[in-house]
Amino acid sequence: MLAAVQPEDQEIERNARASLAAFILRARRVEEHSLARDRAALHRLARMEFRVQVTPSTGKATWIQEFPPEEQVESAAARVRPLILNDDPTHYGKALKALSYLLHASGAPEPVMKDLRGLKAEWAAIQPKGQAVRGYYMQVSNTDSGEFEQLTDNVLGFAWIYGDVVHADAERLAQTRKFGVKERFRAAVPLVAHIMMLTIGTLNFIRYTQQHGMVSGLDAAFDAEVVVTETTFRAEGQVFLSEPDSSGQPMTVPPIDQNLGDDWKPIHEVLGPPDPAPASPESP
């Protein structure tokens, strides 16, 4: 016996697809970012990898981290930021809730649901207001008083995102002022790279569920253009010029389906051919 699909269930399903589609569109912009072109390099950034150079004669060691230009990381941060903003339609939590509903409704197998729970746990670990250590913490000390101040890389990284980049969060900037923008940026790069990796991984998981028939109705979100790759714009047609109706007044342009009238002339008739170049004097 088949159960009838209730209108409220159809509405919930439509809303779930809409939430998932919003995430897909934003996630595809993240996927197309220049930092994501080399996935191995992005993975190294997310892992906070560094090199160590040792000088045996002195016993000193130098650890080196090489990061992309700040502008490139800044644009990447702007692309991922809506995904961690609770009120944004693209927020990861809305997308994962929607995906969970659609997968349950389609009877997705337990291994798929387990992977979904894993994704939820990974996203939940992204804490914009968290004080915990992601990879390291920094200390600055006052040699006169002996006092020191300590902050985690999570605090510093999100202070760069919300204080230096997408907002001017005065509280975050004040909290991290002693460490400066350089240390905020240093902490933010692995954070931004990690969110990018998690975004792309979630997008690929959604692709997998669609390809295997567990979710449907997302073709438009996957097919839509999401980035501009050609930045030279060309258009061909006819151009007409006319004198203004009166001094200081905007020109009245006839509707497309009406004749322009005698006051409008083709551009080539108004401007005419360029003046010929003057002939160079003949050599004696």
UniProtKB/TrEMBL annotation:
Top-rank lineage group of the source organism: Bacteria
Positions with biased composition (Pro residues): 273-284
Region (Disordered) location: 239-284
Name used for this protein in its record: Uncharacterized protein
Lineage: Bacteria, Bacillati, Actinomycetota, Actinomycetes, Micromonosporales
